[in-house]
């Protein structure tokens, strides 16, 4: 049996990736060990499945399509900057999502179906775009200041009219994502 490492995502439009790139450039001026997400890999994760059997992709796709039948396209706003778990112990640097009620509803309904298929339910879903991961505490104070400086940054609106099931191939240079299937809302 063949497996694929997969996740379900909302993609970020190219014009917003350019704005996000400017923010990442500001963080790169700081002397800190941060692994930044490649622009082409920026996305909002709805569900990370991990390794799944390719034979099960059709069943998974059917469940996704069934849930999406109840959704029309909607808009979210990328706004704000923060850190997980918090700005005193920075592990992940993220951009926030406003107007995320429909994203949360979509996630919850999808997750309910995925649990029925045997996947573990998400403990706490957080709508965000990861832009970097701190590899050491070096430069933490400056990184915290930069996060605070971008606390109210407005990147722009995303029209969510599709979600994508993606394959993730891990390489020494970082993950490579390939689209397995696109689902229209």
Task: Describe, in plain words, how this protein is organized in 3D.
There is one protein chain. The chain is an alpha+beta fold. The protein is built from four helices and nine strands; from the N terminus they run E-H-E-E-H-E-E-H-E-H-E-E-E. Strand 4 (74-86) and strand 5 form a beta hairpin. The longest helix is centred in the middle third of the chain and has 16 residues, at 101-116.
User: Helix content range of the residues, please?
Assistant: 25-40%
Major β-sheet annotation: 5 strands, antiparallel
In terms of DSSP E residues, the strand content is 35-45%
Largest sheet strand order: 2-6-5-4-7
* Helix and strand composition category: alpha+beta
Low-confidence stretches: none
Provide the residue-averaged pLDDT. Answer: 95
CA-CA gap between termini: 31 Å
SSE string: EHEEHEEHEHEEE
Radius of gyration: 17 Å
The tally of strands reads 9
Q: What spatial form do the alpha-carbon principal axes imply?
A: globular
* Number of helices, where a helix is a run of at least 4 consecutive DSSP H or I residues: 4
Secondary-structure map:
Elements: E1 3-11, H1 14-28, E2 34-36, E3 43-53, H2 57-68, E4 74-86, E5 89-98, H3 101-116, E6 128-134, H4 140-149, E7 154-160, E8 162-169, E9 176-184
Helix pairs in contact: 2-3
């Amino acid at each position: 049996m063949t497996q694929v490492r997969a996740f379900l995502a909302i993609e970020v439009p190219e014009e917003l990736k350019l704005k996000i790139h400017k923010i990442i450039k500001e963080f790169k001026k700081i002397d800190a060990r941060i692994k930044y997400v490649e622009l082409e890999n920026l996305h909002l994760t709805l569900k990370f499945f991990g390794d799944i059997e390719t034979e099960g992709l059709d069943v998974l796709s059917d469940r996704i399509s069934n849930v999406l039948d109840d959704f029309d396209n909607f808009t979210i706003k990328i706004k704000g900057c923060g850190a997980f778990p918090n700005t005193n112990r920075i592990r992940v640097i993220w951009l926030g999502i406003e107007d995320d009620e429909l994203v949360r509803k979509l996630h919850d309904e999808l997750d309910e179906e995925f649990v029925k298929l045997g996947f573990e339910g998400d403990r706490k879903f957080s709508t965000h775009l990861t832009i970097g991961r701190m590899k050491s505490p070096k430069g933490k104070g400056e990184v915290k200041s930069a996060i605070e400086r971008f606390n109210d940054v407005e990147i722009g609106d995303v029209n969510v009219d599709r979600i994508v099931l993606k394959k993730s191939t891990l390489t020494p240079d970082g993950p490579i994502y390939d689209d397995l299937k696109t689902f229209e809302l």
